[in-house]
């Protein structure tokens, strides 16, 4: 009896393939026509699903870097420190990673994103409405903007080792967008590039104006203090010169004293020199003080012009919306207005004008020449969604699977419905 029971148990646990094929063959019409109907329906539906086109582009980044002016080697030490204290700006490729991490959150500001879009002429009213609907959070913007580093992890594998001191930066951004028309997708990617440029330009110009405004006003105060000190020393030495001349008048024989004599090297020892020798030293000191005073007054005049320019720019920052291109044009307008009332033949005016022109030229090169699309934005000719072939294959497979399962459920129900009814009647 035990052997009979175990053999029955093993028989029931085995899968009989003949029963499976018999069930499928019994319901072949349901499976075949059902799968065929579902496939045809998926083909029809695929024609009504909106086609999506993907546009892509690589936007190269540029920025400006603050440098110290290096004076010629033969220049005086005092003038060297004065020149080195003045910053200059030059255009460079890429953005240092530290600076990029500071600026990048501004890229993801939906309010700023929509503000720049409304001020930009690349998008019409319909696209602007869609933009306000589709870009409500930082993640909505972030998914289409991907940084490209000068030295990525993959580069370390290819080139074996990259020096730790090697300059690394974000050299560009991979921009992309999908839309229901090729032109719309391309227009959005182009706007992304203009938006990135505007963010970088505004942030850099904002820092430039605020820092330079503070710098030139502090330099004016430094020059004022040095001028006051130089004038005091000039007065002191002039009085000393007059006193020595009075001594010579009172003691005419002192002019005949031998100038070559031993004196103390300690402070105040020079007073034991012959009066004529002291006069020569004082005259030399006065000449140097006058030269230094002229340099300081010249510097102050240059700093005053630059301080006026940056003061006017700083006042406009609070009135102007966050728009990099508008701020750049405003700086050029203020520059023209400031120098319009100045005497362009004066060296100080020319030097201040040239300093500003060099800085603004660096911004022009960095953000309007170096910040550009190297690739794209592409205008796709083939949609990438929906993939009709894949949709038809998947729908065919899933419908076949579901109908096969339905066939087995129907087979099981017909075989067990009497037992189920008997069980229900007993329980009731």
Written overview of the protein:
This protein has 428 residues and is α+β, with helices and mostly antiparallel strands. The chain has one domain (54-375). 67% of the residues lie in helices and 10% in strands. It has 14 helices and seven strands. The chain has helices at residues 2-13, 17-26, 28-48, 77-84, 97-107, 110-119, 125-134, 138-142, 153-158, 182-250, 275-317, 324-340, 347-370, 388-427; strands spanning 53-60, 62-68, 87-93, 95-96, 145-149, 169-179, 372-375. The strands form two sheets. Strands 1, 4, 5, 6 and 7 form a five-stranded antiparallel β-sheet that branches. Strands 2-3 form a two-stranded antiparallel sheet. α3 (28-48) crosses α14 (388-427) and α11 (275-317) packs across α13. The model is unreliable at 1-13 and 70-75 (pLDDT under 50).
What key attributes describe this structure?
two-stranded antiparallel ribbon, 428 residues, 10% strand
Topology:
Layout: H1 2-13, H2 17-26, H3 28-48, E1 53-60, E2 62-68, H4 77-84, E3 87-93, E4 95-96, H5 97-107, H6 110-119, H7 125-134, H8 138-142, E5 145-149, H9 153-158, E6 169-179, H10 182-250, H11 275-317, H12 324-340, H13 347-370, E7 372-375, H14 388-427
Helix pairs in contact: 3-14, 10-11, 10-12, 11-12, 11-13, 12-13
Total beta-strand segments: 7
Please give the count of helices. Answer: 14
Could you spell the SSE succession in H and E letters?
HHHEEHEEHHHHEHEHHHHEH
**What fraction strand?**
5-15%
Main β-sheet: number of strands, strand sense, barrel status?
5 strands, antiparallel
* Rounded Rg: 42 Å
């Amino acid at each position: 009896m035990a052997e009979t029971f175990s053999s029955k148990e093993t028989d029931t646990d085995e899968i009989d393939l003949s029963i499976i094929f018999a069930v499928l063959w019994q319901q072949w019409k349901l499976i075949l026509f059902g799968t065929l109907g579902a496939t045809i329906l998926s083909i029809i539906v695929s024609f009504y699903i909106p086609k999506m086109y993907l546009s892509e582009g690589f936007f190269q980044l540029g920025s400006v870097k603050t440098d110290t002016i290096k004076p010629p080697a033969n220049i005086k030490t005092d003038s060297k420190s004065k020149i080195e204290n003045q910053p200059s700006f030059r255009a460079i490729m890429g953005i240092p990673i530290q600076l990029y991490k500071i600026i990048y959150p501004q890229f993801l500001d939906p309010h700023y994103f929509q503000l720049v879009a409304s001020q930009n002429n690349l998008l019409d009213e319909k696209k602007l409405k869609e933009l306000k609907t589709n870009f409500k959070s930082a993640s909505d913007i972030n998914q289409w903007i991907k940084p490209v580093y000068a030295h990525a992890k993959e580069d370390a594998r290819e080139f074996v080792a990259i020096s730790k001191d090697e300059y690394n930066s974000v050299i560009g951004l991979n921009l992309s967008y999908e839309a229901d028309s090729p032109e719309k997708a391309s227009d959005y990617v182009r706007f992304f590039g203009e938006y990135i440029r505007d963010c970088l330009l505004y942030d850099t110009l904002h820092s430039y104006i605020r820092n330079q405004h503070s710098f030139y006003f502090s330099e004016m105060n430094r020059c004022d203090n040095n001028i006051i000190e130089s004038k005091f020393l000039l007065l002191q030495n002039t009085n000393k010169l007059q006193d020595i001349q009075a001594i010579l008048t009172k003691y005419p024989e002192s002019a005949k004293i031998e100038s070559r004599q031993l004196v103390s090297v300690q402070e105040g020892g020079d007073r034991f020199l012959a009066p004529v020798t002291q006069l020569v030293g004082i005259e030399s000191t006065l000449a140097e003080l006058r030269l230094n005073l002229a340099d300081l007054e010249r510097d102050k005049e240059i700093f005053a012009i630059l301080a006026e320019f940056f003061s006017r720019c700083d006042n406009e920052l609070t009135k102007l919306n966050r728009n990099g291109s508008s701020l750049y044009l405003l700086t050029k307008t203020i520059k023209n207005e400031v120098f319009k009332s100045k005497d362009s033949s004066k060296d100080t005016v020319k030097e201040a004008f040239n300093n500003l022109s060099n800085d603004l030229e660096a911004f022009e090169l960095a953000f309007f020449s170096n910040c550009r699309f190297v690739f794209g934005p592409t205008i796709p000719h083939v949609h990438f969604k929906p993939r009709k072939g894949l949709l038809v294959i998947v729908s065919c497979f899933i419908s076949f699977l579901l109908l096969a399962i339905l066939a087995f459920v129907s087979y099981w129900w017909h075989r067990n419905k009497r037992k189920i009814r008997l069980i229900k009647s007993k329980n009731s």
